[in-house]
Write a structure and sequence with these properties.
This protein is α+β, with helices and mostly antiparallel strands. The chain is about 50% helix and about 10% strand. The protein has 18 helices and 14 strands. The structure holds protoporphyrin IX containing FE. The site of protoporphyrin IX containing FE (HEM) has 24 residues, from helix 5, helix 13 and helix 18.
């Protein structure tokens, strides 16, 4: 047995931190070419072993609880932001129960109520926002998509009471909470710095808003008709019969909004930027709606989304190229032999999974660098190879419901295993609705008419388009 090869570096502690941080996907690609699918680099003094490709994804993401641990890595960042006793500030078994509670609100029945809510938020945003006044204009799209994401997600998932607070106090407080997620806080999370003081104040204030809302809604009793997550959490009990305490509900609500906000907001921005790259695709989307839903384009319903394959393909393809989570980390708890190799990963290492590497590998995606949503539709020469459909996937139950194992899959933008995303279906619904409503109203293009697109900003834990990222919109007649 031996250690995996080590990426060459000049300085101890710093190791490859800077070069990794500038462009993680490039770093993975280049070192994979040099060292193979499994290699180690030094990240802030920690030996970090990367395992890429479908087998590497499976090795880390479906690692056993006795072998790999997420909370020991993530907790320093997430606990001050979310609050105590939830997600990574509790044993994994408790997180599995909490994921089950949070997932219960993400049912088809609830989704049917979410689509009209999201449609309404999107269209009224475009109506009132000053950047969309007139017949055409130029807009810095990530700022707008961040707002649309928070309005749609908070209204659908958290109810109208919480949504109304986003017009005033909550937006700024969430911004302060966000500052806790800068990568530098992996080292400085404890420090009494201005941004950490703001983070702690915001956490207490936001938690109190949720706790007060819980009390208000309890007082409403049967008059409270909303089918959102808050309501479900208020009714949930742990296996031992304890109802979920109010402070845990509040902290889970913060966690849910934070988890969804960054990834969905970044993805919707990338979607609009790719559509502006290829204005013809916007017209194809518009035509798809006319063909399937009728020329009068009636109000969008949940059932319509499944009938719009190009809309679905836009989300899939954007997440293939621009997955917002480029690095998934685990602490190694037992020496772990890597199947099919002579390597054993010691407990002093951290494991890093980067499913984006196989997502951009020509072995699975012909012409991988091309954003080509049509590759997900039948008959495309760029069709994905060896990506299994939902039905073909092996299923597992880690305690939060039956999910696809995603074992050995080259395409895993939502992760796999016990920490897999529970927000996938909600994110798809939200993003497809935003696309559908946007192309009903606007044509999009690049300001200079080119096919260019901005680069990626990797400074925060979630990658996103570099700003400013301006595109041109033109109202349909
Ligand atoms: C976990 C991606 C939207 C809630 C994850 C993970 C990924 C991911 C890769 C696994 C992290 C790990 O293994 O360490 C995404 C993407 C999204 C998205 C690409 C949108 C495009 C959402 C939304 C919600 C959400 C909308 C909430 C409604 C969660 C939760 C976890 C998770 C609760 C579980 C964390 C754990 O078990 O450790 N997501 N997500 N996500 N996501 Fe998402």
């Amino acid at each position: 047995p031996s250690d995996p090869p080590m990426v060459f570096h000049w300085f101890p502690f710093i190791g490859s931190t800077v070069i990794y941080g500038m462009d993680p996907p490039k770093f993975f690609r280049e070192n994979r070419a040099k060292y193979g699918d499994v290699f180690t680099f030094v990240l802030l003094g920690k030996k970090t072993t990367v395992a890429v490709g479908p087998a590497g994804n499976d090795f880390i993401l479906n690692g056993k609880l006795k072998d790999v641990n997420a909370e020991e890595i993530y907790s320093v960042l997430t606990t001050p932001v979310f609050g105590r006793d939830v997600v990574y500030d509790c044993p994994n078994a408790k997180l599995m129960e909490q994921k089950k509670f949070m997932k219960i609100a993400l049912t088809t029945e609830a989704f049917k109520t979410y689509v009209p809510i999201i449609s309404h938020e999107v269209t009224s945003y475009y109506k009132r926002d000053s950047a969309f006044k007139g017949k055409s204009g130029i807009v810095d799209i990530p700022k707008k998509m961040a707002e649309i994401t928070i309005f749609t997600a908070s209204h659908a998932l958290q109810g109208s009471l919480i949504r109304s607070k986003f017009d005033e106090s909550l937006a700024d407080l969430y911004h302060d909470l966000d500052m806790g997620f800068t990568s530098i806080n992996f080292v400085l999370h404890w420090a009494p710095l201005p941004w950490n003081r703001k983070r702690d104040h915001a956490q207490r204030t936001v938690a109190k808003i949720y706790i007060d809302t819980i009390k208000e809604r309890r007082a409403l009793g049967d008059a409270d008709k909303e089918l959102d997550i808050l309501k479900h959490l208020m009714k949930s009990e742990y296996k031992d019969g304890t109802p979920v305490p109010d402070h845990e509900i509040a902290h889970m609500m913060i966690a849910l909004l934070m988890a969804g906000q960054h990834s969905s907001s970044s993805t919707s921005s990338w979607i609009m930027l790719h559509l502006a790259q290829y204005p013809q695709v916007v017209e194809d989307l518009y035509k798809e709606q006319i063909k399937v839903l009728g020329a009068d384009l009636p109000p969008l319903q949940y059932e319509d989304l499944a009938k719009l394959p190009l809309h679905q393909a836009i989300v899939k393809e954007t997440l293939r190229i621009n997955a917002p989570i480029h690095s998934i980390m685990r602490k190694v708890k037992q020496p772990m032999p890597v199947p099919g190799t002579k390597y054993v990963i010691p407990t002093s290492h951290v494991l890093l999974s980067a499913p984006g590497v196989s997502g951009s590998d020509p072995a699975y995606f012909p012409n991988p660098e091309k954003w080509d949503p049509y590759r997900w539709l039948p008959g495309s020469p760029n069709a994905p190879l060896m990506v299994r459909s939902e039905e073909e996937e092996e299923k597992v139950d880690y305690g939060y419901g039956i999910v696809s194992k995603g074992a050995a899959s080259p395409y895993l933008p939502f992760g796999a295993g016990r920490h897999r995303c529970i927000g996938e279906h909600f994110a798809n619904l939200q993003l497809q609705t935003i696309i559908a409503e946007t192309v009903r109203l606007f044509k999009l293009s690049n300001v200079d008419g080119s096919n260019n697109i901005v680069g990626t900003d990797y400074a925060s834990l979630f990658s996103r388009p570099l700003e400013p990222a301006k595109i041109r919109w033109e109202r349909r007649d």
